[in-house]
Fold this protein.
Amino acid sequence: MNLTSLTVVVGSLFGTSPQNLAPFLTTPWTIVSAENATDAQIETAKAFVNAPLPALADAIQGRLYQYSYTGYPESDLSSIPKQLAVCNCHQSTVPIAEYCMAAILEWNTKLRAQDAQMRKACWSTAPPGNTCAASRSVMRQTENLTLGILGFGHIGQAIAKRAAAFEMRIIATDVAAQDPPPSPLAWLGDDSQNPRLFAESDFVVVALPLLNTTQGLVDASLLAHLSATSVLINIARGPIVSEDALYDALSAGSIGGAVLDVWWNAIFQIPPGTFGPSSWPSAYRFDELSNVIMTPHDSGESDEAQIEALREIAANLDNLALGLPLDNVVRPAAALQAQGAQV
């Protein structure tokens, strides 16, 4: 089959050159950096990857807007012309699932605390080690603990699969309940079951997209259902959880702790070298709380995830060139809804 080369305009691509897409493509594409794209190239482009939204006003031949990541601002959709199908990637499913299991295991095994104690010779019955023997950490087994997953999509399912290998009891809520639930869940409820999920869980992972309907969903009333030993893990988006309510619960010790990889302020937009309240990822000093593990929104970052993103983007570009259905459609092209988002 002889195909005419199509143009794709590519914006920021996790620090790699847009040309790195080329080896993954099986159909002919001319790859243009959004930074250098001419008006004519934007007008004739068939696809856009992470391109600046203002440029889309002139994308009169565009048929696909592709994100290189899973989460995207819901407000973006109103700025993307309706003739463009909008798709995302699920490249970070594996590293995020592994991050969640690492967080659970670290919380239970207390490896960091044991390392610190070992460095103080806490095993010794004679000075200098005997002064800290009383503070030695005792591990908790992960087997038979309950993991609650708020949002049972790609990431939630990957977390459940790994948690099952540790013989955890796994429950989840999503848009719709399922009875019987899919393996390996003990039950899968709808949003009305969120209080039950929090009440039954030793660990709760927030794995929801940030939408108008999910912003602030985990509020004080929902956190109140957690026990004094339960731990909240947020790998989704910061604003899904009430910043005030979580800080208050952690400070008061009414919940056991939190593992936070996502935040309320855009930490990657803070100018280098700045320090102080305006540069914190939160309005509160979570870093001063001993029951919090903090990471800088890196749970989905791995070399393999970046390669997977390139593969998924290229696959959709190939699908577009060949007239095949697109993968991971979050909004079909308005004029093509009846055709199942084929372009």
Observations:
- The two ends are 18 Å apart (CA to CA).
- DSSP finds eight helices and 13 strands in the chain.
